[in-house]
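Handoff note, outgoing to incoming analyst
You'll be picking up this chain. Sequence as last confirmed:
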Amino acid sequence: MNSHTWYLLLVLTVAIGLLIYLINSRLRIHPFIALIVVTIGTGLAAGEPVAKLTGSIEEGAGGTLGDIGLTLALGAMLGRLLSDSGATDAIAHAIVDRSSNRRLPWLVAAAAFVIGIPMFFEVGLIVLLPLIFSVARRLEDDGATKGSPYVLLGVPAIAALSTLHGMLPPHPGPLTAMTGLHADLGLTLGVGIICSIPTVILAGPVYARWIAPRLADVRPDPVLVAQFTGADRNNAVDTTTNASSTSSAEGTHTDTPQRAGVSTGLAVTSVLIPVALMLLRTLAETVLDESSTVRAALTFVGEPLVAMLAGFLFALGVTLVRGGRSSEATRSSLTDSLKSIAAILLIIGGGGAFKQVLQDSGIGDAIASAAEGAHLNVIVLGWLTSILQRGAVVDRLDSSPVMSLVVAGWAVA
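Most recent structure output, in case you need it:
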């Protein structure tokens, strides 16, 4: 490598360090603003012509949002519809109800696995908390488990949700990396599911069985439990030291919205429609001739945007016809769901701009040259980079798509 290559690598190192500093320092600059500032500085330092720099930023941001933004928005709306219609509750209770205490951690992990396919980590966790807290309090009252029942049930749910959030489209990180690497969608889904299952098992029920007895005194604040289980808050405060005297988990709290019942079959169908369509696309492209009309049709409906739209429309029909919700309430929920991902969309757009500047300024070629000279596998490079990024930006979950874009840009270069 020549001196210019080393200089470009130094520019990248400083840029990433500055990005992490701006996000995590006392300034607490929004990741989108930090990305744009660092992107401009990186392009100028790397010697990209000023006249071309703004074009790179616009091309990177626009192209990334065009590939990912619409699919991500539909995924957010689908998750909100499933939550508001009671579909996710139906899935969770169908898996967990009428089970033995020993199987509960496995069944909670299974419920979180199904729910986590279309839902973001934070949304899925909020959806599952009422179930986790209710069942955990029941186990605590019965004295049926060793250690903390909240840890026993909470760890499998968190393991499943976080694993799917990091491995499967349409979640931001996997979808961004898949698009940047031009990976096959169906293959990404298939491999992601295969890798997710042992990961969830080890990090979920297996680890929970080991750690729960060692955290016997860990339990949430009673007021928090009451908030998510529907029990009266005043009673919860008065029973901090006596969990058995808390109100029934089936009680009604004024802050908890009433959700109409949705059949388990319809709930599972709503979740699996996008996944099934995407997998059918890959199957058609594998076994059918390119001139086949069936292949063309399945390829079209298996596009992420179309597949997510199909799942969303089905869930919308379930909500309006079987969920008992008014059209005005449904529209309000959809609007709120888009508000919740606005920041993520901006961050993804900023990350796309950063990636494009890395490529157009020659930094991507410098990284590829360095990786080739070091004989380091690109998968290992991406893995090590992700570990460093997650350790440095551990409290900003919404910044994960940024590094996915950066790693994808390196691989393409």
